[in-house]
Predict the 3D structure of the following.
Amino acid sequence: MTRKITPKRLQEIADEITERIAGESERGVVADYIPELAKVDLNRFGIAILPVETEECIVAGDADVPFSIQSISKVFALTLALEKVGATLWSRVGREPSGDPFNSIVQLEYEKGIPRNPFINPGAIVLADVLMDNQGPDKAIEQILGLCQRLANDQSMRIDGDVAASEMKTGGRNRALAHFMAAEGNLRGDVEDVLKIYFHQCSIAMSCRQLAMAGRFLASAGHLSGGEDPTVTPERARRINALMMTCGQYDASGEFAFRIGIPAKSGVGGGILGIVPGIASVVAWCPGLDAKGNSLLATRAFEELVRTIGWSVFGPI
Ligand SMILES: NC(=O)CC[C@H](N)C(=O)O
């Protein structure tokens, strides 16, 4: 896949997609199990495309409006956890798709408190526990936010305190997952402290433009622009991409690979970060979700984009 395309053409495509999405009447449903997320306007849509070789981000629609990145934060938490403990991480969390919803409890009992992968909720709760070790929750939260700020080269991004409070209050399922893993010996820190990290990382607010920038290291074999030190090795970037491809959309990961064919990570805030290895990072955001908790129209936007340009890791379209 070596399809290069001019910024002008990319802009036209982004504008066309934005216009088409605006005309869609079926827009999915907001994640109302987190009450603060239910307040977001279903008509929002933004897209940002950031080619690896330029500083120029192609944007359309609400690409500069911050939204709750939710589970997309698991990509950054995984990057930090791997940096901290390396391959030993894999004794506490697996690398297989779960085929179950992101907050499912049932599989965790069969598999003795070892989550299938780092992108379902229990997997990310283990990552939070790893990050908390030796430093406590507040430092770990700072570290995750700090990585996002550094990658996006933007110190202005913040955690949305109202979303975090909303998650703390209504996070019964996540509490159940965390306590079960603690009972199985796969959570070492205090459960409420671990969940504090998890809820706060999910509540980081970023715009499509900021998130495309923050995710670009995965499209460029771990390298940052401007000659800074690489964030991760090329091998690690490839492996994070592999996990995004196989597990990034939970029990719709197979369908996403089938329809779109690039590594991607979704969040219940309606965002999707997609990686076109060697070519670009792309973010689309539209708050309404489908039945599996992935943005209905951001997925559609990705489908149109890759179909128009031929960006699939599985071969030309
Ligand atoms: N898929 C998601 O984005 C889920 C994240 C959300 N904070 C939760 O724990 O339920």
The first helix runs from residue 7 to 22. The chain has a mean pLDDT of 95.
